[in-house]
Amino acid sequence: MRVGEIYLAVAGGLLLLSLLLDRGRTAQALLTAWKITLQVLPVLFFIFVLMGTLQAFVPKETIAGLLGAKSGPGGVLLAEAVGCFALIQPAAVFPFSGYLLRSGASYAAIAGFVLTAILIGISTLPLEAKLLGIRFTAARNFLTFGAAFLVALVIGWIL
What we know:
With 159 residues, this protein is mostly helical. It has two domains: 42 residues; 101 residues, no CATH class. It is built from eight helices and no strands.
């Protein structure tokens, strides 16, 4: 039995238990889950199209050369820069990261990409600066970028 099948079996069992305990709340939970699914599906569709396009036009050797183990810290910095400018939701970061890993990117580069894609958002900088101040926003983003770089290097070293 694969991991996905185990998750489905556990979710199905918990859904049945929830139905037995409170049908109304279960219906409300299913409606909420459906609304979230409708929000995430377009983003995931876009990521799958992007992965297919990259696979068709960018050879794996190019990805491995730019982000692979031999690229060193420069590959991690490149992956972090891409992560900073990636305008994708966190749920879509992981499928794209899996594609990069299968294409030859190093674990360190993947870690840098994931951390910056989730923690640093170029598109949200103006709002963050307006609400929290420019100095705070700049300091948080620079420190986050540096910390992500260090964490990515440690992950690359461990794995």
